[in-house]
Every structure is written in structure tokens, then in C-alpha cells.
Amino acid sequence: MNDLTAVVTAIRRRSVWWRAGIVGLGALLGACGPAGNTGEPPGPSASPGSTRAGFLHVLQGQSITTYQIDGVTGQLLQTATQELADARTLTGDPQGRFVYAARSPKDGWYVGEHDPLPTGYIVALAPDPKTGSLTAVSEASSQPGFHNQFHASGGWVWLSATSTRVYALWEISTSHIYSTYMTYAVGSDGQLGPGHLELVGESNAAVDADSGVLYSGDREYSDIPLRAYTLADGRLTRSGSSELCGGSILYGGIPLVAVNGWLLASGHAPTYSTKTVCSYEGPQLVPRADLGLNDSARAAVAVVPRTVFPLATDLTGGATAALVAMQFADPKGLGPYEVRLFRMDGNGGLELLDRVEGRGTLLFHPSGRFLYLSSTSGLKVFAITGQNQLELIQALGGGEGAMAVTLPS
Questions:
Q1: Cys bridge to 75: 70, 228, 292, 366, which one at CB 3.0-4.6 A?
Q2: What is the enclosing helix (H) or strand (E) of 9?
Q3: 395 three-state secondary structure
């Protein structure tokens, strides 16, 4: 039995695993106990006879807070808060089996010719089926930076996953920003393989969780076109690129979300006077349509609704290829941020369903029944009603960063 196996076995034998040090993994997680003090009134208890719909995990600074999801009401009940040193961001496995967290030094560092490069870590975490508390099951370390003669800062800034691979983006900021993509194979047991450096240059990305296609772009006002990459022998290979939006040039194309073989990306019209959102099809990145959303789209998430727990009902009538939630800023900077809910059809077209005021990180529940909004002002839970409207059902303190849903069997 190797050290890692011995550690995981010992942890699983504990009735309250957070009291045990995770020696083999460097004591990555430390818990503050269930229902930690958030400064807010305690959340509601689960409804009588409710069905659990998995767990929501929210990154808050150096800790992960876990909530049990009531499958009937959608209400959240906090079950644990666990420390995670040097946490930058996290994401979930599309099948709800694991949470992946990215850890890297947060302070600035000077990298000279003979100085060691900073190390980043990707950690795979598995939920306890009763409490949702997370146990580290594997870890991969990488040094995706490079030597230079400047005081630098940076680290992991983005993380995504398919059922077989984790994708991560590392940035170094000096007088310029330098980006490196890394990919890691992941087994069905959550074991991470070695990291592979894939490409340097683009600084924004979206991954289609079903097809594994990675779409990348640079920044606003950049002349780098949108690009698509597919996996070949474990490596990313460019499969397409585009600088068009419909029949017009798109400047500064930034991937927003990829789902069902479609990419939605934002960018500027040739005059730079307006921004828009465009649709692209498949790994060849074929430009299809300017969707006419002449606002400042900042971020988006999508889900193909599926039944993932008993008592779930198909609130979309079975006709929805995907739901998309997109966040917009007022182009003039005068109004509040807005979250809009869309239905995406099989041709990549969007139909507006509802809109609410809100700013922060977005995540759908895999069932498509709930939408979560995490921000420095708190955590909000929206139910998606039978009329495809966003109904606020709960507001809690303690939101902030990235989120993931797990669905332990």
C-alpha cells in the first residue's frame, strides 16, 4: 500500500475526517466544523421527506463551504466549512463525482535566472455521501511558468473539467501578461495524471464538457482570432479558428460558454462602438450568427437539463436543448449588472426567458432546476419555474467565488 492509499484509507475510517491531518497530501484541507459562523442566521432545515439533490460547494477565500441541496424546495443547508490553503479557483466534474481545486502562491514573487519557479497544484476532492465534506484523493503539481528578470505575480486563474480531463490556465503578470494552458488526465477514481503544457498566448477559454473541445481567445481589443482545440494522443491540437461574427469581423473575441457543440463568444464590432455575442459551431469554429445582444456580456454558464434525483420534474417540457445564463454589464457603466436566462435551440439560437439584477459567479444545478449566484455580497439561489422564470428562493451570507455541485450516489 503506497503512502497516498494509506492516508486516504485512514481518513475514511474516521467518523469526523476533518480532525485527521492529510499527511500524504500536505494537510490540504482543514475543517472548521459544520455550519460555521457566517454572520448570518442559520439556513432552513431540510423539508420533511425531502430528497437530497447533492451538494453545493462554494469557494470563499481560503475555505470551501458545503451546502446540502433540498431536492424539493431547492433550499441550501450548510453542512461544513473546510480550509484550503492557497486556493485560487475550483470546478466540478460534469458527472458530479469530484471537485477540482487549483492552488498556487498568492503573493508576488521574483523569478531570476537561478531562482526556482513557483509551483501550482491541482487537487481532486471527493464528497462524503452523507455530509458532502470533501476529502482529497489525488494531487498533481506543475511549474507552468518560465524564468524572467522581473518581479512577477500570478498563478491559476481558470479551471474546467470534462469527465476524463481537467483544464487549467496559469498567468504570470510582469510588464505583460503571459498565459499557459495545462491539461491533466483524470481517472474514474479521481486520480490525476501528470500535467501537460499545451499552448501559450490566449488568456480566456471555455470547454464543452461533452465533446472536450477547448475554445480560447485573448482579450478585448486583441487581434488574436478565436481558436478551437481538440484532443489527440492526450494533447491539444488546433482544429479551427475564426475572426468572423456571421459575415462581419469580430475583434477581441472572448469565449463565454460552450455547450451541445456550440460556442457563444463576445467581441467588438469593426468600429469598436458596440459589443455583441456570436455563435459558432463545432470544433472547426464555423461562425453562424450575430445574436444581436448589443450589451457587454461578461460571463455565461450553460446546462443540458437532466434528471439527477427522484422527484425532479422536467420544467422545460423536454424541448430545451440547453439553458444558458449570461451576465451583462451596462455598456455605459451607469446601470446595475443583469443576469439573463435563455433557452438555446438546436441551431445555437437564443430565446430570452427572464432577467434579474445580479452580479457574481453563476452555476446551474445539473437538473436545470436551480441557478446559483455567488458574490461578495452573499449567495443567492434561484428556482427556474415551470414558466421558465427566475424565482429567488433563498439568500445567504457567505458567497464569494467559484462553485461546484457534487451528486454522490
A1: 70
A2: helix 3-12
A3: strand
Q: Provide φ and ψ at 208, rounded to 5°.
A: -80, 110
DSSP-based three-state secondary structure for 12: helix
Domain spans of the chain? Answer: 1-31+85-201, 202-294, 300-409
How many CB atoms are located within 10 Å of the residue 303 CB?
24
C-alpha cell at 11: 481518513
Bridge partners of residue 381, in order along the sequence:
372, 394
Distance from C-alpha of 136 to C-alpha of 241, rounded to nearest angstrom: 38
Give the predicted TM-score (pTM) of the model: 0.85
Q: Residue 147: its pLDDT value, please?
A: 52
Which residues lie closer than 8 Å to 121 by C-beta, 6 or more apart?
A: 86, 102, 103, 104, 139, 140, 141, 142
If 0-12 CB within 10 Å is exposed, 13-18 middle and 19+ buried, where does residue 334 land?
exposed
pLDDT tens track for 92-148? 999 999 999 999 987 656 666 666 778 899 999 999 999 999 999 999 998 886 655
**What is the C-alpha separation between 300 and 340, in angstroms, rounded?**
9
R_g (Cα) of the chain, nearest Å: 21
Three-state secondary structure call for residue 112? coil
Beta bridge partners of residue 324, listed in sequence order: 302, 342
